[in-house]
Each structure stands twice: as C-alpha cells, then as structure tokens.
Design goal:
alpha+beta; 4-stranded mixed sheet; 8 helices
Length: about 240
C-alpha cells in the first residue's frame, strides 16, 4: 500500500511538473506576444501622432506664409505712397482736383478714390490700391497742367483703377522680379480708354509730353515711368494723334 501511494504521488507530481513545464512557456509566449503587440501599437500610435503633428505644423506654416503673402500684396500701394512722400489731400484744398476726380469716377461707376498729393515740381501721377483705390497727383502736375491736361491724367488713372490694372500692377510688384514681366502695359489701351472718357485725345497727349518720367521700383503704378511695362511717350503721343 505505501508503495502504491508513493507511486501515485510520483505520478501526480510528474503530471503537475509536466503541466507546469508546458504551461509556463505558453504563458511566456503569450506575454511576449502581448508585449510585442503593445510595443508595435505604441510605435504605430506614436508615428501617427507625429504625422498628425507634422501636418498641423505644416498647416500652421502654410497659413502664416499665406497671411504674409496677402499682407505683402496689400502693402504695395501703401509702400509706393510712402516711397514718394505722398500725403492725403486735406478736405478744404484743391476743389478743382476733387471735382474732376468725382465727375470722372461717376462716369465710370466707380466709388471716388482717395486723393493723395505727392510733393515735388515734377508733373506726374500714380494710381494704386492701398487697400482701397487711390490716386496720387504731384504738386507739379497741379501747378503746371491745364484743366484739360489734369483731367486727362486723372481719367487715365481712374480707368486703370476701374479695369483692375492698378491692382494687377500691385500684384506684379509683390512678386518682385518674377512679376516684372507680368505687370500690365501702361499706355496703349488705357490711353485710348482715358481719351474716350474725356473725349479730347490732345489733352492726354500734351499731358504725356509735360510729365517727367518716374524711375523707381513702383514704376508700374505711375502715369509715366522708365519701367519696362511703359510704352514710350513718343509712341503714346503718336497713337493719340491718330484717334
């Protein structure tokens, strides 16, 4: 009997040892698989979060770049006015100038633009968007031009505002050297439109001969300038004589 009990105990122990010997590696493999799976999941989640964070950072950067580009575009008109020292025309000054601008704007169904005065004796003018429509007239043009000549220059500036050419010129300036070839041509079609508005082409021709060409980065905004987008004054005058 004792031997049978001992044998039974040994068989039970052997069975338990066998059970433990099989079960323990199985639990270890399960734990290792769970650990590996958890690590892989952590890596995937970390990668996904990093990707999302990268996208977010890229999105923020793109928004900032777009905002900077938009500001730079809208700043061109203000920079042009600042560069030539232009100041807003006081309410009580130059009534003839104000009346001419208001009358021409009404003919074009255009809201009257802001008027700026550019110091200096040279006769010239510019138009820009800063951020609303602006016409800048030099003190020299006001002093030296006749009424018909002044009206012709203003008609030229206002037609460029009405057709969007002034805004396109600001865009070209914002693009720098890349946009220099994209600036609208000054002279030609806009001269014809201005002459049609005043119904007196000779007035615009004399104004062109009176003007002193402007030489600066903001040439595309000026009535007469030494920029590549301006038609030569002699050609512009000759074209107006044929109208």
């Amino acid at each position: 009997m004792p031997e049978r009990g001992a044998a039974k105990a040994r068989r039970a122990g052997t069975q338990r040892a066998a059970d433990w010997g099989v079960a323990a590696p199985s639990r270890a493999r399960d734990a290792g698989a769970a650990l590996a799976g958890g690590g892989a999941a952590a890596i995937i989640v970390s990668a996904a979060l990093g990707l999302v964070a990268g996208w977010a950072a890229s999105g923020v950067l793109l928004v900032l770049l777009a905002a900077a580009g938009y500001w730079w575009l809208r700043a061109q008109g203000r920079l042009a006015l600042r560069a030539c020292g232009a100041k807003p025309l006081p309410e009580c000054e130059e009534p003839r100038l104000r009346n001419l601008v208001a009358g021409l704007a009404a003919q074009l169904s255009l809201a009257p633009p802001d008027i700026f005065i550019v110091p200096g004796g040279a006769a010239n003018a510019l138009c820009c968007v800063a951020p609303g429509p602006v016409v800048g007239v030099t003190a020299g043009l006001i002093e030296r031009a006749s009424r018909t000549e002044l009206e012709a220059v203003l008609a030229h500036c206002l037609t460029r505002l009405a057709t969007g050419e002034a805004a396109d010129a600001c865009l070209a300036l914002a693009l720098g050297p890349l946009g220099s070839r994209a600036a609208p041509v000054v002279g030609g079609a806009d001269d014809v439109r201005a002459a049609a508005l005043t119904r007196y082409p000779p007035g615009l021709g004399r104004a062109l001969e009176l003007a002193t060409p402007r030489s600066c980065r903001f040439g595309p905004l000026w009535f007469v300038a030494t920029s590549r987008c301006h038609v030569e004054v002699s050609q512009r005058v000759a074209a107006l004589e044929d109208l």
